# Entry
Amino acid sequence: MGRLGCAGPLWVNAQPVSNCQLAQITVGRLIAQHDDAHVAGFFAELDRIKALADAGPGLVWRLVGDDGDAPTIQPTPGPQFIVNMPVWTDAEALFTLVYRNVHTQVMAKRRQWFERSDTVYLAFWWVAAGTQSTIGEGLGRLDRLRPAEQAFTFKVDFPAPDRPGAAVDMNPDPWCAGHA
# Structure
């Protein structure tokens, strides 16, 4: 059993395959209501980024509301607070989405649509393959970036519990590092 509960590696065609997947939470408070013109650009970009993620390699699952969209989920009383919670095969797949296509330019515009945060807005953690995390768990992970093995960001990416290796700095751009 790995340190976070993922079983040992599976073997497919003599190659080890992790039983762990990378859960992610990203949160933010929009500067205006969903239907306001000040955030229309965000929602236009969001549809494009979701399509890239859905079509690309590595996305296992993402949280969606009853209408099929995550921004309509209201985990807090404030309607401008939104949450994104996907699960990925590994950190490299997510890193590729964030840094190897249009997503990087969209993240650079974050401050146009979101209030500045004094707290961490991004966290990753390892889950057993097939696990669908809850919003409550994700929000809790934002509070648990220490000890780092319980949650982390691209700045310090910990390997899956069932894979040997040391933490790696994936050198994220400052606006994608997961903090203000």
